[in-house]
Amino acid sequence: MGRLLVTGGMGHVGYETVKQAAAAGIPVLAHYMSTFRADDARAVTGDVVWVRCDLSDPYEVGMLAAAHRIDGCIHTAAVPNDKMCKPQPHRAVQSNVNGTALLLETARRQEWRRFLLVSTGSVFQDLPDATTPVPEDRVPTPRTFYAGTKRSAEILTEIYAETYGLSAASVRVSWIFGPPLVPREFEGPRGPIPEFLRRAMRGEAIVEPSGGDFAASFTFVPDCAAGLLVLYGADRLAHRAYHLGSGRNQSTFDVAEAVRAAVPGAAIDVGGGTEPWTQFIVPRGPLACERMREEFGFVPRHSLQEAVAAFAEWMRANPRSYHANGGS
C-alpha cells in the first residue's frame, strides 16, 4: 500500500490531517520545509515518515517521489494569506503555484490515485454582498496576490484532471482555527477566535472598539481534516471543486459569546464594524458546502460553541501556547 503524502505536515491543517490519517491506519508521508517540531512529530501515533523537501525544486520533488511509494496527496503547504504573500511575491508564486505544478506532474507520471489541493474561500473577492452564500460552481474572482496564486493552483489542478484523467479536486476552506497553532500575538488573518481565546486565557480584559460585525465561516481544524480524509478516501470525485465548512457565517459577537462560555469570567467588550479583521481580506458570504453533504453525507461535527470550548480545553492543557513568554 502506498503512502498518503501530506504536504505542509507541520502546518495548521497539515498536522491535524497527518494525525487523523495515521490514527485511521493510513500510512503517511508527512512533508515539511523549514519548520520541524520534534515533540509534535513524536506525538503522532501510527505509521508516519517525516521528510523535508522544497516542493518548488524539481530535483528534490523527484527524489522524494523516487524514495517513497506514494498513493496520493493532500496538498496543504502554502504561503497562507495576503499578509504573508504581499511582501514576498516571488516566494508565494514558488510555493503556491510552482510547488503545486511539480506535485501534479509527479502525480501524473506516477499515476497517483488522488490529488487534493487545499485552497481557500479567498478566491472569491468580487461578490455582490457579504451575506449571500457562495456556491461551489461560482467562478472565482481573485483580486489579491494570495488569492491569485491559489486560484492559479486551482486552474492547474483542474487542467491536470481534465487533460490527464487525474482524480483531483480543489477543496476551499475558510477561517480555520483550533490547536495546535495559537499565535502569541495579534495576527489578523487568523481571525478573532485565537486572539480572543489567547487573551481570555491570560485573564486579560478584551476591549475592542470595532470588529463585532465581521462575520465568516469559521471552521474547526479537526473538522477540516476529517473532511479532507473523506474526499481522499472516496471511490470517485464527481466534482473538481468542493467547499468544506459549516455553510454559514457567524459574527465576532458570536465568537465573543462562545469564548465567554468557554472561559468563565472572560471580560469581552466589542464594538460594531468589521476592522481589524477585514484589513487583509474581502468580506464574503458563507461558502455553500452542498457537494460534501450531498455526495458524502459530510457535515462538520462541531458547532462554533463546541469547537471554541474544545480549543480552550486544549489551551488549558498547553499553557505555553498562550503565555507571551512561553511559560506556564
TrEMBL record:
Domain NAD-dependent epimerase/dehydratase intervals: 5-234
Cross-referenced Pfam families: Epimerase
Gene3D superfamilies referenced in this protein's UniProt entry, alphabetically: NAD(P)-binding Rossmann-like Domain (3.40.50.720)
Pathway annotation from the record: Bacterial outer membrane biogenesis; LPS O-antigen biosynthesis
UniProt cross-references to InterPro entries, sorted A to Z: Epimerase_deHydtase, NAD(P)-bd_dom_sf
Family recorded in the similarity comment: Belongs to the NAD(P)-dependent epimerase/dehydratase family.
Database matches in PANTHER family: DTDP-D-GLUCOSE 4,6-DEHYDRATASE-RELATED
Name of the protein this chain belongs to: NAD(P)-dependent oxidoreductase
